[in-house]
């Protein structure tokens, strides 16, 4: 079964750091770009970041650029999001999502989503 | 940034009726549009990709159409399990952007 499972969320103080992870199984992880999408409580979906299958291409929303870093370990079938200088407005469920197509770069539509991990930024 | 605007914000429909949801892009995205369904407490689910291609396992009552800047998701005969929030998303340009969602509720 194709699936992704996020972990690592929690409560962190403003200005703090947190790393969330996404373990993938059931597909050739290195062949697909992977993304993080977040959803603040009661709000809509917001794209955060994407990384190509090889890891050579990374993309960020302006709201997180310079603070968040996406990475992947294809030997461990795991995606990461390192979040630094966290702000209250980063509070959200963070979803890991798999690209729907194999491409040399990024496709950008997502066919497999995890259940999400909650990140709360509060003092 | 491409702004995606969905309408209406809320759609009240009776079971068995047809639902038509709209999504407009602020500039052309060709056919690089996806539709997702999200139920409370669940992750989004891909319904439509490439503006009109149903994803694996999606029932035929879901259909997508449009290109350029105007797109439509149609649910031909609403079932009880279809009451949810629906999002469109463009993947033609960075940053990837979602619409604000349309909530389909029981009338």
In brief:
Chain A is mostly beta strands.
Q: What are the salient characteristics of this protein?
A:
heterodimer; A: 123 residues; mainly beta; 0% helix; B: 107 residues; 7-stranded mixed beta sheet; 4-stranded antiparallel beta sheet; 50% strand; globular
Q: Could you characterize what this model shows?
A:
The complex is a heterodimer of chains A (about 120) and B (about 110). By secondary structure, chain A is mainly β. Chain A has strands spanning about 5, 10, 20-25, 35-40, 45-50, 60, 70-75, 80-85, 90-100, 110-115, 115-120. Helix content of chain A is about 0%, strand content about 50%. Chain B is mostly beta strands. Chain B has no helices and eleven strands. Chain B is globular. The mean pLDDT of chain B is about 95. The interface of A and B includes residues 46, 100, 107 and 115 of A.
Question: How is the secondary structure organized here?
Answer:
The complex is a heterodimer of chains A (123) and B (107).
Chain A: E1 3-7, E2 10-12, E3 18-25, E4 34-39, E5 45-51, E6 58-60, E7 68-73, E8 78-83, E9 92-99, E10 110-113, E11 117-121
Parallel strand pairs in A: 2-11
Antiparallel strand pairs in A: 1-3, 3-8, 4-5, 4-9, 5-6, 7-8, 9-10, 9-11
Chain B: E1 4-7, E2 10-13, E3 19-25, E4 33-38, E5 45-49, E6 53-54, E7 62-67, E8 70-75, E9 85-90, E10 97-98, E11 102-106
């Amino acid at each position: 079964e194709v699936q992704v499972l996020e972990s690592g969320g929690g409560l962190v103080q403003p200005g703090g750091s947190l790393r969330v992870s996404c373990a993938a199984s059931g597909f050739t992880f290195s062949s697909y770009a992977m993304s993080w999408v977040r959803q603040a409580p009661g709000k809509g979906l917001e794209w955060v970041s994407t990384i190509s299958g090889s890891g050579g291409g990374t993309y960020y929303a302006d709201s997180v650029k310079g603070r968040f870093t996406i990475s992947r370990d294809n030997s461990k079938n795991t995606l990461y999001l390192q979040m630094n200088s966290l702000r209250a407005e980063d509070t959200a469920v963070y979803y890991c999502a798999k690209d729907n197509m194999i491409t040399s770069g990024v496709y950008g539509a997502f066919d497999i989503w995890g259940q999400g991990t909650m990140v709360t930024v509060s003092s | 940034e491409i702004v995606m605007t969905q309408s209406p914000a809320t759609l009240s429909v009776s079971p068995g009726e047809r639902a038509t949801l709209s999504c407009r892009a602020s500039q052309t995205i060709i056919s690089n549009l996806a539709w997702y369904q999200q139920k409370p407490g669940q992750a989004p689910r891909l319904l439509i990709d490439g503006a009109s291609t149903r994803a694996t396992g999606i029932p035929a009552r879901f259909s997508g159409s449009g290109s350029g800047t105007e797109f439509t998701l149609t649910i031909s005969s609403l079932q009880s399990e279809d009451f949810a929030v629906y999002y469109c998303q463009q993947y033609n340009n960075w940053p990837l952007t979602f619409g604000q969602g349309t909530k389909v509720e029981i009338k």
